[in-house]
Amino acid sequence: MTSPLHDEERGESAEDIRRDEESAARPAELWYPNVSEFVADRFVYFIPSPTPDSGRVWCPEWFRHAEALSRLDCVWRAWEALRWDGPLGMSNWWLHHVDPHVRALMDPVTGPFARCADGHQDHEPLPIAPPPEGLFSDQRQSLSRDPFTLD
After folding, report:
1. What is the DSSP string of 83-111?
2. Are the beta carbons of 43 and 105 closer than 8 angstroms?
3. Is the Cα torsion angle 131, 132, 138, 139 positive or negative in sign?
4. Could you give the 3-state DSSP secondary structure of residue 75?
5. Of 26, 90, 100, 121, which sits with the fewest C-beta atoms within 10 Å of its C-beta?
6. pLDDT tens-digit profile of 100-117?
7. What is the rounded CA–CA span in Å between residue 80 and residue 139?
8. What are the angstrom distances between the C-alpha of 120 and each of 30, 60, 113, 117, 130?
9. C-alpha pair distances (Å), 61 with each of 11, 19, 111, 132
10. pLDDT in tens, 38-74
């Protein structure tokens, strides 16, 4: 479908539109090179340190906890994207990213740092039993080329 307005009437050339679409498809430049830099330079200043009576716990070796690393990476990447949304970006970041992740991270009973109140303690993975042979198939390659077919 083509626009009913000619290029001249739109005020943009086809080349201008193509350039805009290409730059919108590129990821925005990151402010921080990685999650560790984000945590050290920004996150630790936003979140108050837990006190003995706060009902929260933090591990200085947060990067040794897979769940914490994953959650903090999500918080960092959300900050990188939402910092560009001037009117509501930071509010959305706090409400929908930081608040729920910090609650989960610092929960003294179920959070990844629950055993770290007196220093880092390794996390024990959930126990699992091996599934019966043939129960699961390799899902990385679809058997069908039709994207609407359920395999």
Report:
1. TT-TTTHHHHHIIIIIHHHHHHHT-TTTS
2. no
3. negative
4. helix
5. 26
6. 999 999 999 999 999 998
7. 32
8. 30, 8, 8, 8, 30
9. 55, 44, 14, 37
10. 999 999 999 999 988 899 999 999 999 999 999 999 9
